[in-house]
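Figure 6 in text form: structure in, sequence out.
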């Protein structure tokens, strides 16, 4: 049940971001928003693209929300791995949702459209999606130990 909730909330988040950023590739990654942008060697290595204040606060908000889990459960390493797994999967689903719910891209367009901020593609998906699936699944498996 938690996974269905996660998918629904992530897709609603995708729609919110589409309303804020705009549809099409020209508005993605907060390109048209009046937000501060950071880019240096460390950010290039970790993120692969510029970092915006908008995204820093957005991800911080998500991390804090998901860690609300510990208001009801005791903190432990397995529980932390579980929460981190949910966060990774949520961010992956939300990002994927941004493309498939985008009226100028859609599901089919995701595989045909050149997305400027996804520079590395492997098997039709951004490399970051593959790493996120590996990390999210690994954290989920660690939470079961």
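Output sequence:
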């Amino acid at each position: 049940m938690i996974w269905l909730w996660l998918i629904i909330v992530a897709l609603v988040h995708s729609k919110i971001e589409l309303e804020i950023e705009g549809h099409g590739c020209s508005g993605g990654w907060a390109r048209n928003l009046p937000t501060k942008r950071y880019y240096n060697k460390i950010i290039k290595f970790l993120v692969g693209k510029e970092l915006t204040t908008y995204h820093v606060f957005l991800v911080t908000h998500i991390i804090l929300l998901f860690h609300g889990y510990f208001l009801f459960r005791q903190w432990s390493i397995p529980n932390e791995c579980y929460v981190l797994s949910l966060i990774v999967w949520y961010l992956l689903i939300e990002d994927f949702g941004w493309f498939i719910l985008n009226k100028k891209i859609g599901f089919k367009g995701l595989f045909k459209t050149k997305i400027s901020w996804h520079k590395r593609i492997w098997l039709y998906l951004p490399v970051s999606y593959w790493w996120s699936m590996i990390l999210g699944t690994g954290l989920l498996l660690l939470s079961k130990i």
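Caption detail: The mean pLDDT is 85.
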